[in-house]
Amino acid sequence: MVRLAAILLLAALPVAAQDVAPQRAAALENMLIQDCGSCHGLRMTGGLGAPLTPDALADWPDDGLVATILHGRPGTAMPPWKALLSPDDARWMVGRLRQGVTP
Amino acid sequence: MKRLFTVLVAAMIAAAPALADEVRSTGALGIVIERAAGTVAVIDTRAHTRLATVEGLGDLSHASAVFSPDERYAYIFGRDGGLSKIDVLTGTLVNRVMQSGNSIGGAISDNGRLVAVANYEPGGVRVFDADTLAPVADIPATDIGNGKRSKVVGLADAPGRRFVFSLWDTGEIWIADFSAGPQPVVTRITDIGANPYDALITPDGRYYVAGLFGEDGLALVDLWHPEKGARRILDSYGRGEEPLPVYKMPHLEGWAVAGRHAFVPAVGRHEVLVIDMDTWTEAGRIPVHGQPVFVMAEPGGRHVWVNFAVPHNDTLQVLDTETLAIVETLTPGPGVLHMEFAPRGDQVWMSVRDGNEVQVRDTLTRKVIATLPADKPSGIFMTARAHRIGL
C-alpha cells in the first residue's frame, strides 16, 4: 500500500523544466525543434510523425511519452532515442512539449 | 515628337520592376530555405551573395522547391500546406495559397503548367495552375479508416505530363497522367512493399524508385511500361541483421548515378548501397560514418557525397564511385542538412544548420571558398533544376 502510494505520488509529480542543467536544456530545446521537428514538424503539428502539440498529447500520460521517446514505437518510424537521451532528458522534453514548442 | 519620345521612355522606366534597372538573368540564382524563421534567401551562386530575403512563408519544416521553366519563379512547398510562388528576380512573394493542413513537397509538370503538392493531411495530391495557383485537380489517396487517407510521399514529375507518387500507409505507387486535360487518368500500382518513405526518378525520367522503410528493399516502376507494375529490388540487403535506429528519414532526391551504378542510402544501416542499373541488383555496399540521409553524385559522377542523420550530422563523406572507397571525411559543422551541386559541378553548396551558415566548397579541393550567414538553413535549390526531370 505504501509502495502503491509512492508510485502514485511519483506519477503525480509535475514535470519540471529545470530537471536538467541549463546548457543541456538549450541543447535539448534545439534537438526538439530541429531533430524531432524533422518528422513531427518544427511547430510539432505533425508530419510523417504524429502531432506533438499540447492538445494532441493531452490524453497521453507522461510515463508513456517518456517510454515512447526512449524505446520508440515498434512498427512505426519512431526510433528508440535511449542511446542519445537519458530518462531525465526525455522527461524534460515531455514537459517542454506540454508547454507548446515553436521555433 | 521628341517630347512624346521622352514621355514614352519615362513611362517605360516607371513601369520597370524594382530590380530591373540592373538587367539580370536567373541562371546563377538559387534559394536557401531558412526553415525555422519561415524565410527564403535568394542567392547568387556565382557572386556568393544573398540578394534578397523573402518572408511570410509560414512553416517551412522540410520545405522544398521547384522552378518554372523560365527559371524566374520558385514554388515553395511548406509543412503547413502553404504553396508559395516566389519571383527570384525581384525577391518577392507573388502568390500564396493554403492548399492543405500538412504537406511534404511537390513537383512541376514537364510543360511547366501544373504544380502538384503531396499532402499528409488530408492524404493525397492536389494540383494547381502554375500561373495563378488556382486549383486544377484533387487526387485523394487511399482511405485508411477513421476519415483518414494515406500520407503521400516521393512526388516527382515524369515525361508526358505525369506525376508519380507513393502512398506511405498503404504501400502503393500511383501515376497521375494529365496529358488528356485537367482530369487526370490515375494508374494505381498496389502491394509495392511496406511504407515507401521517399522516391526518385532517373535523369531520363524512365524509372521511378521508391525506398521502403517497412522492409528491406526498393520498389521499381518502369514508366515506359507501368502495366508491368512494380518490381522489388535489393529486397534482402539487411537480412539477418538487427537494424539500427533511424534518427532521420533518408532522402532519395536526385539520383546518384555514375556509369551503370546508382548509389542510395540503406535504411537502418550505416551503409550506402550500390545498385547495378543494368540488372537492378546489388553491386556492393559501402560502410559509412552513420545513417546516410542524402547520397548525391557530383554532376560528373566521379564522386558521391553523403551526409548523415543525428548524431553524425556534423560530417560529410566523399566516396569514389569507381573504387567504392571513402576518399575524404569532412566535418563542415553542426547539422549538415543538405547539399546542392552547381549544375556543372564545380562547386557544392551545403547548409550547416546549427552553425547558421551556408558553405560553398570547391568540389575539387573540397575547401570552403565562401560562407553566407543564414538562419538555420535547410534545403538549397538552384534554378538549373528547372531543366531537370524529376527535380
Helix-strand blueprint:
The complex is a heterodimer of chains A (103) and B (391).
Chain A: H1 2-12, H2 22-40, H3 54-57, H4 62-71, H5 87-99
Helix pairs in contact in A: 2-5, 4-5
Chain B: H1 2-15, E1 29-34, E2 39-44, E3 49-54, E4 64-67, E5 73-77, E6 82-87, E7 92-98, E8 102-108, E9 114-121, E10 123-129, E11 135-140, E12 143-145, E13 148-149, E14 152-158, E15 162-167, E16 172-177, E17 185-189, E18 196-201, E19 207-212, E20 218-222, E21 230-233, E22 256-258, E23 261-265, E24 271-276, E25 281-287, E26 292-297, E27 303-308, E28 316-320, E29 326-330, E30 336-341, E31 347-352, E32 357-362, E33 368-373, E34 377-382
Antiparallel strand pairs in B: 1-2, 1-34, 2-3, 4-5, 5-6, 6-7, 8-9, 9-10, 10-11, 12-13, 14-15, 15-16, 16-17, 18-19, 19-20, 20-21, 22-23, 23-24, 24-25, 26-27, 27-28, 28-29, 30-31, 31-32, 32-33
- Largest beta-sheet characterization of chain B: 4 strands, antiparallel
- Which of globular, elongated, flat, extended, rod-shaped describes the shape of chain A? globular
- What is the arithmetic mean of pLDDT of chain B? 93
Number of strands of chain A: 0
> What's the domain count of chain A?
1
The percent of residues in helical segments of chain A reads 55-70%
Radius of gyration of chain B: 21 Å
CATH topology of chain A, anyone?
A: Cytochrome Bc1 Complex, Chain D, domain 2
Structural category of chain A: mainly alpha
**Helical percentage of chain B:** under 10%
Mean of pLDDT of chain A: 85
Low-confidence stretches of chain B: 9-17
Q: What gross morphology of chain B would you assign?
A: globular
CATH class categorisation of chain A: Mainly Alpha
**SSE order of chain A, as H and E?**
HHHHH
CATH A-level architecture of chain A: Orthogonal Bundle
CATH superfamily grouping of chain A: Cytochrome c-like domain
